[in-house]
Amino acid sequence: MKLHLLLSLIIFLFVCTTAAHAQIDSSLLKLPGKADTTKKGLSMDAAYNRPFLKLGKLPVSIGGYMEADYQYMGTSGIKQGNQFQFRRFSLFVASTISKHIKFLSEIEYENDPAGDPGEATSGPEFGIEYAAIDIELNPMLNFRGGMILNPIGAFNQNHDGPKWEFTDRPIAMTQLLPDTWNNPGFGLYGKRYSGHWMFGYEAYLSGGFNDSIIDNALGKTFLPAAKSNLTRFTTSASGEPLYTGKLSFGNDQIGELGLSYMGGAYNTWRVEGAVVDNKRRVNVFDIDFNTTLPVLNTNITTEWAWIALDIPPNYTQQYSNRQFGGFIDIVQPVIKGRILDWDNAVINIAVRGEYVDWNQGNFTSTGARMYNDLWSIMPAISFRPTPQTVLRLNYRIQHARDITGNSIGATIGPTRGISFGIATYF
User: Fold this and answer.
1) Which of 36, 291, 302, 423 satisfies CB 3.0 to 4.6 Å to 162 for a cystine?
2) What is the number of other CB atoms lying within 10 angstroms of the CB of residue 60?
3) 3-425 — its CATH code?
């Protein structure tokens, strides 16, 4: 989809929901589609907008979530059989150190399908996903430092499994952008409320990408490859910071629109003070939007990202300098009320549409279009006995093409199949 067409679609949705007086799902843990105007929030609040349990008189609160799934997938008649997956287990620990000073951490075990569709799994991982201290100076001026989640888009900060009706994370947010992209860093953030309106900003300097985004075993431009390089937690390949910034505009009767940018030099261009290469940059632009339409309480969440980066002149066009992708989720509550012994249960039907293009542009030699793209449609039904727990059944229909436009078979991974999963906060 062309940039101007996509922006027109986002603006159209925003204007339509303004005219219809839509109600935003401002509490991320409440029942989908049921407005809550007593609590205002933006996607930037997702880290703290979780259920926490206070431990008596101890100065800490704890919480967490887990995800487990079953899948039966196949491509071109080749079945993978029955697969049982324990995806994630996360533990949150929060503490109010003193007045206006607070700390939050998230420790996660993850064993998820790999970021690249050609791989089976990335293997189990255990690590610190988030650990930051917040010093509140003023509602519009607060300091944060530690292991942060870079605020590129909305999903990177608001990714907890129990908040979504789908067992898999969006393809563009995991295989185009690196999901749960975290780095040591420091920055400022703030929020302001005025009537129904909300405004928020975030600006951080952090560690970032390295040469692996174009020098990896996949033989293509692939930003998620940087996640496997753990040296980013102690050193910067370029010796320069990664800049990440986001502006959020929300209305508790309309929705939330987010505009974000992330960029900086990624390659090792200087060694011991001597220049050994040209400085090469990566730039990421992201737009996200969410709303809940009135009457039917239909929830719409969408996010799209554009990547541009400098590629060495001796690299082939398999290494793209422009990439694009995103998703849109539509969730419709169909039954709400008492179900079995749960008083506020909800049954939703949903659908997710996804598109990713890893090689935008044309071949320089022939002028023909490059492809290397993928689209996916995933209808779903979910049952929420409480807002914190979801059982979800999905069916994936997926199609992919290589760089010349030929359909890709079994090497790309599952293209048809069902998945069933459960996710819950605790």
Assistant:
1) 423
2) 14
3) 2.40.160.10
